[in-house]
# Entry
Amino acid sequence: MKSPSHRKLVAGFALSVALIVSVTWMNMGRENRSQDASNWVAHTHLVRYSISRMFSDLQEVTSATRGYILTGTPVFLEPYYAAVKQVGNQILLVRSLTSTIPEQQKNLDALEPLINRRLELAAQVVRVRQEQGFEAAQALVAGGEGRKTMEAVRAVIEKMDAVEVLLLKARGEVNRRGEASVHAWTVAGAAGSLVLLALVFALLLHENRQRQALAEIVESSEDAIIGKDLNGIITSWNKGAEKIFGYAAAEIVGTSIQRLIPSDRQQEEHAILEKIRGGDKVDHFETLRQTKAGRLLNVSITASPIKDAKGTVIGASKVARDITGKKQAENSIAKLSAELETIFNSVPTMIWYKDDKNNFLRVNRSAAQTMGRTVAETEGRSAYDLMPNEAEHYYEDDREVITSGKPKLNIIERLPTTSGETRWVQTDKVPCRDETGNIIGVIVICADITERKRVEEKLAVALEFHKQLLGNAPALIWRAGTDAKCSWFNTTWLEFTGRTMEQELGDGWVEGVHPDDLDRCLKIYQDAFAARQPFQMDYRLRRPDGSYSWISDSGIALNDVSGGFCGYIGYCFDITERMQFQKELSRKNADLELFTTAVSHDLKSPLVTVKTFLGYLEKDLDDPGARAKDLGYIRSAADKMKRLLDDLLALARIGHLRNEPVVLPLQEVVREALGIVAGQIAERGVRVEVTPEPVLLHGNRPQLVAVFQNLLDNAVKFLGDQPAPRIEVGAETEDGEIVLFVRDNGKGIDPCDQPKIFGMFQKLDAHTPGSGIGLAMVRRIVEAHGGKIHAQSDGPGMGATFRFTLEKTQIKFP
# Structure
């Protein structure tokens, strides 16, 4: 078949010759015009194919990019780089083929930046996947710019294809009109033969340049572009074919295309040729072809019929693209999908996907079995059908995740089953997105925690039992962590201290420890923690009223189930009475020791006197005067021993007499005491003043009288040579407590003697009468009545005041 350029040249000369031989010219002109129209129609088909291939290559870039994002496998980059290169070649080819069509050139000017931007986005995604991983790359894709760019590219492609469709119709119409107007051209051609010849040569030159450019593009294409006749004999072979199949053009052109087809796929060529003969096109047929070296390649084949000027199919143009990399990527994806499917149905965790209408799209085997159904019975069904009572509750969480785009984790909820049993599950819900990043549903991951929940419930019951047991125990109980900070105190402790749990937590409890005990207490506590050893310590702890009570605190280390140290637990008991008893016992032991010494001395002296004067009495029996004198000394020594024994007996009875306590006015008790010491007071001329305030005393009447009797007697003894002796008995309030006092204006007390005046047998003046037990007795009685006593004096000659308290003393006005 002659080339279009040759036809046009012949047509030019034919038009010139038509001036001489018109019939010959008309026949030649008709044939040349028909051939020219056919060439333009074929040209339009080639443009449409190139536009379609350009978009297909760009889609291949997107597909390869997506595969690389999902797997991170470098094999996906091979079809990616190949497709990027092909896109560039196709842009050059289309620009060349449409160089005479301004509208298409304008469309290409709009299309090319969009394609370049799409390629930039793809390269950026690949780079982010390599450097930052799947999540970052997926987030970039979810931005949606790539999808919007592809939509813009598609719009321009469709616009360009529409232009070519219009050109195709117009050129067909031109061909038909040309035949109708052949006669008119016969006349006009004679006049314009010379002009026509010039135009033919110009067109020939232009077409030659176009065909040369087209040939260069075809020859440089990475795809195999092969021409063949209807018998399958190869008529053309580009460098892309040579590179893909390994055959040089010289050794393959003129041979059958069957050389490239594996033996088990020979029938494919017959089917392709049948379609070609019928004028049909074969689009993107994926199959296997064989190289010269015998290697099988995955290829995508597009075959188009080649027609002559009369429209008769005379051969085929075949484009074969090596898609081995793409197939490998697809196989990798398929393998990965199979592995994920296996994992999906093998994990014990329940997993399912739901759409935004509350329908189950996918359910793994574990989830279906837990619900009491098969996978087939669950997938595709609405949650309202499967679990009507709970579906809306579950759907609320689904909607929250879908609307916010944020996961909702660690949801503890019930899951019903077909058996009627309710399972406890811990659920995580995350948004499910499509490839463009739009949220289309929710992914649900559930762990069956029914057994854990049962254990937790039993544990909660046990913990509540122990909490009640420890919280209400009579002992003060505390708990500390591994950092030695207290984390819990029982109710007994909090009531004992009058503080809240928040105040005591951490190191707050030390605020209640007596300052004198704090350093010792903390050292024992911290040393025990460091050594993980038990400890025991006694210290004073502040009560709600501000007073301090002694407690005995014992702590032991706690271990968890694995034997690891997890803190301390301690229990405390109030030992205030024990400490007071020990203190009293110590004091009594000291008194006993002093008593033994004093009694030994004080009884020995009168006994010696008695013994001595008995000897004198034997000698003086005949002397009445001497005898009376001796008997006087003996009687005086016996009286002294009696007084001492009486005082000791009274002292011993304090705290042991079981008289019922009574409430007495202060004035009545003092009046009775004054009656006992009235002789000494009258003899000394002492003025006694007693407060008129309605003070009521509570206690043992004889002992209360003894307190004031001894204090009054003591005051009289130590009035000295005071010319106006005075004793004052009264009461006053100090820090909310009623304090009783006996004050005199006598000799006073030396500061160095004040600490010992309440000791047994302690006499500041050996010449004063008495056994030295009176003030010791007073202190013992005061303390037995829950009070305290102390003496005050500014020194010798300044008088003395004895101030004391008694439990339950009150001032009651009528």
